[in-house]
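fyi for ur records
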Amino acid sequence: MRQHSTDPAAIEAEIGRIRSLGVDALRRRWRAVFGRRLPVALSKDLLGRMLAFRLQERAFGGLDRESLSLLDGFARHAVLPRRHLKPGTVLVRDYQGERHTVTVTSNGFDWQGRTYASLSAIARAITGTAWSGPRFFALARPNGPSPARGPNKTRGANNRSVRVGHDGSQPANGSSHPSLLPPLRTASHA
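which gave:
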């Protein structure tokens, strides 16, 4: 493997060669580059990607200290950082014809006069089944941007989420039909 070349065309050509190698050749290259045995069960694609990353890292430099620290923290805790909602934020979800209002507090989430540690516990109490709390309250979507950054998806008249201000106000648009609602926004008051 060519090392310490910073010519982007040469690096790109070497990555092309790595992609064309068979599994056995990739394993040999791994041992030469990393100086240790290959981890068990790495696919050909992943081997090639890791070798290409190391090649680029040597040529152009690695991650900065802050990025390395962030990744190390993820590895140690094995969870992504939680979205932080300010105390006083009110989340509203209409579910099966009933409106559920949750207020974010400094020590959890208040629903029906009781404090819960997570939105998922509240979603489970409301539905009787396991739910992702952030998804249930439209704070997150599977495989997509948060609703605050994209259009609202229709859920049907009886199952829609609305985020409102501390005073209970909602954006007005002249219609209560879910498909005509504006994108959801989070309002919070400190």
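DSSP finds six helices and five strands in the chain. thats all i got for now
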